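Below is how a single chain appears once it has passed through the pipeline. First comes the sequence as given, then the structure the pipeline wrote out for it. We keep one example in the README because the format questions we get most often are answered faster by looking than by reading.
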Amino acid sequence: DPRLRGQELRCAADKLGLTGLHYLGYRDSGMTGSLESQDPRALVNANADEVTRKLVELIRTIKPQIVVTHDPFGGYGHPDHIFLHHQTTAAFQAAGDPTKYPDAGAPYRPQKLYWHVFPKALFNFLIKASRLFRRNNNKFGRNNDIDIDEIAKYDYPPTTRIDIWRYYTIKQEASQCHISQLSGSGGGMMDRIPRLFRRSLLGYEHYRLVD
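Resulting structure:
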């Protein structure tokens, strides 16, 4: 239900103290092979140039110092994340070029582009933890379609590590807003991590500076 997902997103934004949300007007594509991915309104079926133009207009309007997007694998292989990785990168490069999308506002180039990345050590830990708890496989998520083993194959070493431990509770509260994504997911795996390791594994956000 897109209305429910919208409510969940606004809930998370409020918890995090965001000052604005901007919608591009597309539907969630679901994972590869899902019925959602076949919907012509799904993001993965959108015109790539059209999406880039919308992102350029947002960048030129908001004028952010920093742009953050997904890594090339989309974090965990979600087609929308991968699609946005490519179009956000294209928009970052085009926003400062006066010859690109001249009807999308005055040129503006942000200072830096980062990918949000997951440190490989975290996934190695999760793989071992899954076996320790005798899970049948290393898949999780609402539809059991997120594969830890597959994620671990994509290694994008971080260049920047930010200590967010004092905000960890807020981050968890924001995550809990996404009830529809947590339902039936067995998503308590993170909570099973011993407190001794939780600080080092979950107390940081990792990014890779790419431009």
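The first helix runs from residue 2 to 16.

See the next section for the split statistics.
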